[in-house]
Fold this sequence. Notes:
By secondary structure, this protein is mainly β. Helix content is about 0%, strand content about 50%. Strands 1-5-4-7-8 form a 5-stranded antiparallel β-sheet, with no helix packed on it. A 5-stranded mixed β-sheet has the order 2-6-3-9-10, with no helix packed on it. The protein is globular and about 40 Å long.
Amino acid sequence: MFTTRxxxxxLRRFNYRGDFTMPKVQVGHFSPDGxxxxxxxxxxxxxxxxxxxxxxxxxxxxxxxxxxxxxxxGEETAVLERDLELxxxxxxxxxxxxxxxxxxxxxxxxxxxE
Length: 114
């Protein structure tokens, strides 16, 4: 199971009483041979210990550019990294997928309007 860590005013768990204009983000781990991972946003842990087939809760992140890293759980070195530009009123799903053994990992972003 994964845990969600709240980052001071930058990352907040979404609830239906939340701000409906802020960008919402969720992360999915779809690398069958990949280890449990931590998702780091702008240097701070955002989602921890995601395992294969886990999809995080929705979280609100401020509009603008964010640096996202995927690290093996508890490690300091990223296996995937990407800049993510967020816009108000959008919902983003970040998908880590591919095979670690084939060095075919990718970080894909799916964006759609709320």
